[in-house]
Amino acid sequence: MRKVCLAVLLICHVLFSVAQHAEQARVLVHALNYISNDYQYAVADGKVISKLEYDEELEFGEAIIKYHRLYSGNWQPADSIAVGEMVNRLNNLITAKADFKEVSKLATETKNKVITASGLSIAPVQYPNLPNGKLVYKTECARCHGYTGNGDGSDGKGLEPKPRNFHDNERMLGISPFAAFNTIRLGIEGTGMEAHPMLDDEQVWDVAFYILSLRYQQLIDDKVK
After folding, report:
1. Which residues contact 23 (CB under 8 A, 6 or more apart)?
2. Quick one: pLDDT band at residue 34, thresholds 50, 70, 90?
3. What is the C-alpha to C-alpha distance for residues 145 and 116, in angstroms, rounded to an integer?
4. What is the largest CA-CA distance in the chain?
5. What's the pLDDT tens digit per position in 143-165?
6. How many helices (H) and strands (E) does the chain have?
7. Three-state secondary-structure class, residue 127
8. In this model, does residue 32 exceed pLDDT 70?
9. What is the pLDDT of residue 60?
10. Which residue did the predictor score with more confidence, 22 or 83?
11. Is 114 helix (H, G, I), strand (E, B) or coil?
12. How far apart are CA 61 and CA 90, in angstroms?
């Protein structure tokens, strides 16, 4: 009996360690996803079109190298080496003000490689509850993003960049539930978007799917007009 208990404890410890290491990789995946979506608002035709956005991209370019060094120690060596080469190449592209399609493609490929190498979970374990997501949104998000999600909350005034308008179809089009989950969980360093570590996974998934649902109502309203 004692041997069985010890075996169970060992298995639990191993599973916890695997989950913990995978969760650390979320930071790297989050940064790569941000680059893949938002680099287009920083550079166009080899020129900086927004200094604020480009400065953020440069910071993320340096950060992905640091995150890879910190969190890839338990991956398969071949995976760690491959991702290391990819993040360095991506950082060089950002520094060189490369074309958005090239940067986004490499960032997405690197993100997918990290997810596979780390075993990070990218989907909820149960169907999201949008009414619950709305409740979480009102409590945790509305003060900056606004009660209806238009980015006009009282606490968001004066923030730069401004809080995201969840009804902006163009800016929201490239954001997946997984990307929204990571942003809510981790925040965005250097901006007013704070991390929400106090929320459990179920709450984060619920609010992630809720904010992504808002733009569809806007699209319906636009068609009716």
Report:
1. 120
2. very high
3. 33
4. 71
5. 999 999 999 999 999 888 899 99
6. 9, 2
7. coil
8. yes
9. 95
10. 83
11. helix
12. 7
Which residues does 57 contact at the CB level (< 8 Å), separation at least 6? 35, 38, 39, 42, 43, 94
**Four-residue CA torsion sign, 106, 110, 111, 113:** positive
The answer to whether residues 120 and 22 touch, using CB atoms and an 8 Å cutoff, is yes
Whole-angstrom Cα distance, residue 36 to residue 93?
12
Dist. CA 104–CA 100, nearest whole Å: 6
pTM for this predicted structure: 0.76
Q: Which of these, 171, 50, 172, lies nearest to 58 by C-alpha position?
A: 50
pLDDT band at 218 (very low <50, low <70, confident <90, very high): low
Enter the tokens of residue 143.
């003060």
DSSP at 97: T
Beta-strand runs (E) in the chain: 43-44, 47-48
One-letter amino acid at 24 equals Q
Under DSSP, the state recorded for 122 is: -
pLDDT of residue 224 exceeding 70, the answer is no
Quick check: 191 and 156 in contact, CB under 8 A?
Answer: no
CB 172 within 8 A of CB 215: yes
